[in-house]
Write a structure and sequence with these properties.
368 residues, Rossmann fold, two-stranded parallel ribbon, globular, signal
Length: 368
């Protein structure tokens, strides 16, 4: 524990930060902070400084983003950027890699490209920050935040209980693990059912750790239709637009189990917590089925990439992307465009349909 003068100074800094934030925006955000855990779908620069092939801190990534190249794996905003705007934040949630001090009070993004529920997931691409480490990083953040509450754990817990926690994990545990037999043995060690169960057991423990650290309003997202992304379409022997259904079927097992886990958490396993399940699989499927309604013309190719479906090699440094990004669902071999991210965020934020957000939507969760 630091000296009393240190604690007073920390409290003073926190007050300065909160008052500056209040002055900088006409209205307060709907929640005081937003913490993000995940992979490249929501990473906003945490991989920039580590040795990995999974990074996006080069043009044309960020071509439509006001701050330009940041390490986001898309042309503009990520799903959580859009969600932060819908929640009323005046700034995007900053990456953990460069956030310290009072800025932690508004929330932090811990996500890392190639990360998974399992530690070894993504090792084929180099270094990354797996979910276990992301949870540890949040634990470090809680220790730092305690200083701004003068060591008052109850006050800090009360503050954190109002915040929204988002976790989107599992995609890489299939893409960069189970369905990569040349690099991993999980595909032969586990049936698809046993692998989903093993992932859910680990994930349940990780989410419970977040709860024990103070998380009470938690959004978890299912894995999307990975069998239909350009990377898979380029490798699948079917016709150009036919999805790899063996991958999709394996993912549905995980998603079904995740929804049941949310029910268990909400029905008393984690008292005082409210979990929301986002059905990214349904959401991404809907984008493709109703593409024309949303103004999309290209549903099976990346806007930037190389080879079949622009998915054999993902977007390369300084490569020329497509002209009109608004017509594409996919930015590269793996990730949605800015427009697709915004549509999906709006649906999960305010949709009344439980096929997108269950049992309530994110707007309702914020109001609890």
């Amino acid at each position: 524990m630091g000296s009393s003068s240190e604690l007073v100074f920390s409290g003073f800094l926190a007050l300065l930060w909160l008052s500056a934030r209040a002055c900088s925006q006409a209205q307060e955000p709907q929640v005081p902070c937003f913490f993000i855990f995940g992979d490249s779908l929501v990473d906003n620069g945490n991989n920039n400084g580590i040795l990995t092939l999974s990074r996006a801190n080069y043009r044309p990534y960020g071509i439509d983003f006001p701050q330009g190249v940041t390490g986001r794996f898309t042309n503009g905003r990520t799903y959580v950027d859009a969600l932060a705007q819908l929640l009323g934040f005046s700034n995007y949630i900053p990456p953990y890699a460069r956030t310290r001090g009072p800025a932690l009070l508004g929330g932090v993004n811990y996500a890392s490209g190639a990360a998974g529920i399992r530690d070894e997931t993504g090792n084929n691409l180099g270094d990354h920050i797996p979910m276990n480490q992301q949870v540890s990083n949040f634990a470090n953040t809680v220790v730092q935040m305690r200083r701004f509450f003068r060591g008052d754990t109850n006050a800090l817990n009360s503050y954190l209980s109002k915040c929204i926690f988002y976790s989107g994990m599992g995609s890489n545990d299939y893409l960069n693990n189970y369905f990569m037999p040349d690099f991993y043995s999980t595909g032969s060690d586990y049936t698809t059912k046993a692998y989903a169960a093993a992932l859910l057991q680990d994930y349940s423990r990780q989410l419970t750790e977040l709860y024990e650290l103070g998380a009470r309003k938690v959004v978890v997202t299912s894995v999307g239709q990975i069998g239909c992304i350009p990377y898979q379409l380029a490798r699948f022997n079917g016709s150009g637009s036919q999805c790899n259904e063996s991958i999709n079927k394996a993912i549905i097992l995980f998603n079904t189990g995740l929804r049941k886990l949310v029910d268990r958490f909400n029905n008393g396993q984690l008292p005082g917590a409210k979990f929301v399940y986002l059905d990214s699989f349904q959401n991404s499927k809907d984008l493709v089925l109703n593409a024309a309604t949303y103004g999309f013309e290209v549903v099976d190719k990346g806007c930037c990439g190389v080879g079949k479906n622009n998915g054999q090699i993902t977007c390369l440094p300084l490569q020329e992307p497509c002209d009109d990004r608004r017509k594409y669902i996919f930015w590269d071999a793996f990730h949605p465009t800015d427009v697709a991210n915004i549509i999906m965020a709006k649906k999960s934020f305010s949709s009344k349909s439980q096929s997108y957000a269950y049992p309530i939507n994110i707007q309702q969760l914020a109001m609890l």
